[in-house]
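Chapter review: from sequence to fold.
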Amino acid sequence: MGLGTIISAYLQNRDWRMVREALETVGAPTTADELGLSKEELIKALQIAH
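The token string follows.
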């Protein structure tokens, strides 16, 4: 999931903006809204992700 990659990059103090821009360039979703996820669903997904 591209959004997960953005969040991981942010948490690892990497250039998450570059990741977001690259995903936007290819038309990939970069927000929970674009994925059709609520904040609660996104949080749950991040809590159970390995």
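Two observations follow directly from the output. The longest helix spans residues 2-11. DSSP finds four helices and no strands in the chain.
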